What does this fold into?
Amino acid sequence: MKQKKTPLRMCVGCREMKPKRELIRVVRSPEGEVSLDDTGKKPGRGAYVCRSKECLTRAIRQRQLERQLQVALGEEVALSLQQMLAELPPAPPEEADT
It folds into this structure.
């Protein structure tokens, strides 16, 4: 049986390619609101970041999220993103290869 390809995405913080399921999506909605998308299905422009506080902080500090989402992030938005990341459950376990 043919093995299914794992979709890869680049983290805007550490610039590493990782499986999409290991990353979290930051999305700018059509209304201009920036939030974390733990389901990966919200409409809008998105960027991916690792589930670590360091990667999110680096992406905000280096303005990578602003470039990817094409929006200016305010201080309060950056703080709310970090708070949302801290409240998220841990990453889902990897599927076993059978």
